[in-house]
Amino acid sequence: MLVADDSAVVRGLVARWIGEAGFELVATASNGRIALELMAKHDPDVVLLDIEMPELDGTTALPRMLAMSPSVQVVMMSTLTTRNADISLKCLALGAVDYIAKPESSRGVTTSDTFRAELIERVRVFGSARARTRRPSPAGIPAAPAAAPASAPAAHHPAPAAARPATPFTLRPKVRNRTQPRALLIGSSTGGPRAVGEMLEGIGAAALRRLPVLIVQHMPPIFTAVFAEHLSTRTGLPAAEGKADERVEPGRIYVAPGGRHMGLAAGPSGPIIKLTDGPPVNFCRPAVDVLFKDAAVVFGAATATVILTGMGSDGTNGARALTEAGGPVLAQDEATSTVWGMPGSVARAGLAEAVLPLPELATALRALITGQPA
After folding, report:
1. Looking at CB atoms within 10 Å, which of 69, 173, 226, 306 has the fewest?
2. 307-327 per-position pLDDT tens digit
3. Which residue is catalytic, options 71, 88, 189, 313?
4. What does the record list as GO biological process (predicted)?
């Protein structure tokens, strides 16, 4: 583990937390230049990388780190500002595996149990992910490549887990004579911003104009508004945080606002957005389960639902409600997920009629939406 942050307070606290949690901290750095020098010396599994640092900031250091060590798991740290949210999401596209919203003041960092818990959880998850890529491949299974070929795009993605043991699950039988979907529902968390964007782009604007797209991505406030802007740029469709009592219309993308649950209700002229400030569900607010359970009531079988990469099990209970209503649920596979928590939970519960790599999910969803064969 390597921590790069220009605040001595942050470096000291994070170093202590990591040690108390039983992980090894190999070094700390006050800027990106020093971090690169230490990476070359220690080859850490995980790097916690602050965005704003002197001499060489995190945004500039990130691609150099990935070029030096393609499988290193880089987690960006930034305070909750619109500018930093935008930079963090761009860093995910460049190859960072996740981000952490950092309290603005040193006192906030010191007293925030949430920040500490999120940081340690990411160290645990991504440290394990890097360790798997270091293991020798089982006989007969080729190892994941250490780096992309020269002709590949520059963006770094989590290494395909060819050596990962397959997790057993049972697919749900496909529904015959299925109802044409009137809504596309998406639940995601860790690794989700990149996955959602790629999948929607793969589905294509022509199919997405046929129905509303409702997304719960686990994100803090400010980040969700910027995430929606990124999706609008990528798809060419209007995308924004959902607003209370807003009518849900085809061809628009609605993102659950950070810090609020987004659900649905029946309005006088069609389904409307419902926002609430209730307690976290599955430790999350917004929670995927809230949207999915409401959608099962409002849309019934007329849904197309997908669970993408993310920690935890949020979305499983909602997926069960949707399948009981007759709607199809798809899940991202383990190899292309940054973390196979949420989709894995749905798959192991027998609620997914297909568990597919990210590119194939786009094809399958386009077929569901248009009613044409994939």
Report:
1. 173
2. 999 999 999 999 999 999 999
3. 189
4. chemotaxis
Do 48 and 75 contact (CB within 8 A), yes or no?
A: yes
Among 371, 226, 350, which Cα is nearest to 302's?
Answer: 371
Choosing among 3.40.50.720, 3.10.560.10, 3.40.50.180, 1.10.10.10, the CATH entry for 184-370 is 3.40.50.180
Q: Is 106 a catalytic residue?
A: no
CB 6 within 8 Å of CB 53: yes
Can you tell me whether residue 327 is helix, strand or coil?
coil
Has 57 been annotated as catalytic?
no
CATH of domain 2-131: 3.40.50.2300
Q: Which of 218, 294, 333, 345 is catalytic?
A: 218
The pTM for the full model equals 0.87
DSSP-derived pairing of the beta strands 304-307 and 329-332: parallel
pLDDT digits (tens, 9 = 90+) for 55-97: 999 999 999 999 999 999 999 998 889 999 999 999 999 999 9
9: tokens are: 């307070």
Burial class of residue 321 in the structure, from the number of CB atoms within 10 Å of its CB (0-12 exposed, 13-18 middle, 19+ buried): middle
At residue 220's C-alpha, the angle toward residues 214 and 224, to 5°, is: 40
- Angle, to 10 degrees, between the axis of helix 192-203 and the axis of helix 223-235? 30
